[in-house]
Amino acid sequence: MPAVAGDGPATLECTEAVLAIAAHFNAAGVTLVALPSVSIVVEMENIKTVEPDLLGVVLESLAAQLKPHLGALPRPPQIIFSYPGQPDEREEVLHRIRRDGPGLAAMDLDAVGTPDGRYYEMKNAGAARADGGILIFVDSDVELADGWLGKLLEPFNDATTMAVSGHTFLRHDNFASRTLALIWIFALERGDDREAARRSINANNAAFRLDWFRSVGGFPYDPGFKVSCALLYYRLRQQGLDCVRADARARHEPLRGWRFLLWRAAVTGRDADRKYRLMKSPSRARRLRHAGSRWGTMLWRSTRRILGKRKIVGLPLWQVPAALLMGWGFYSIAFVNQAASAIGLFGNAVEHVPDYAEVH
Question: Is residue 142 located within the same domain as residue 276?
């Protein structure tokens, strides 16, 4: 098993430091022993379009989660902002972080640019600069809830734990976002424990032992849009390990714009075929059958959740028919693209969010 970074005397210099750390988290209702140092990678895929007010809320939620623990951690957390741009934009990015998130201004901040960087490429670029024993990933569009840090770190008391995934849910404030919260891959904030337990890895709210993450090469490269986290979980399971699900909560901003949603539905189908081909079977016939099976499953899941859980998100009864049509339409578009990919109508082109789908 890979050695755990931070277990040695360089990280915990004396027994008294360990006891102080444990006492601090015990007082907060979280039991932590021999806590290693922490590096946090914040992916900033949308830094050029996100509003300052929104970014400020996200950054201040991170600061609020870190500050109570600064005296108990072996050292202040290393926070790395990974953005899609040139390396020489680093100071400009850090200036914006300090401006929009003043609560982080005095902390150990770093930034790394990846030209034309895609989601997982930016995460890997940030991880390459990390030096903490535990590596945490969050995104610039998720607001962290109270108790997030302690709950995400607690499972690492077990030396066999290599990965922990928190509970991410979609914020909702209108018809479209309420419907998406019901049909999306994330579980709801409440009343959805079974769905939350089935999630593998939420890449926007997850932690890994840094040594293990690097030993498997980080998030595996794939031209798909959101495939790499599934491939990383696949590698974890191949090693006889699992991802611990923790109640470390993060509220994801709603997905905005009909053009983006139409594109997202299409790429969801193409990604589903990629995952099946890589992890199940390259057979076109089996992939096509899986497309049909998944279509039926997702239509039923959307129907069941809209009818059974609409009150949780505040979806009024009169909007249920439109919500059903939206859910069925989303996964029907996904099915068409998955089936087309299975029979070879799509190549293996790298998936980027097209300009027409960007929300400006």
Answer: no
272-278, long-range: CB within 8 Å, 24+ apart, which pairs? 272/334, 272/338, 273/337, 273/338, 273/341, 273/342, 274/222, 274/223, 274/224, 274/227, 274/341, 275/224, 275/227, 275/230, 275/231, 278/222, 278/227, 278/231, 278/234
Contact 12, 23 (CB under 8 A): no
Are 212 and 117 in a shared domain? yes
What predicted TM-score, i.e. pTM, was given to this entire model?
0.88
Query: Tokens in use for 164?
Result: 């922990």
Domain count, the chain: 2
pLDDT digits (tens, 9 = 90+) for 228-274: 999 999 999 999 999 999 999 999 988 878 999 999 999 999 999 99
Tokens of 172: 């909702």
Give the CATH number, domain containing residue 47: 3.90.550.10
Range of the domain at 210: 15-252
Indicate if the pLDDT at residue 214 is higher than 50. yes
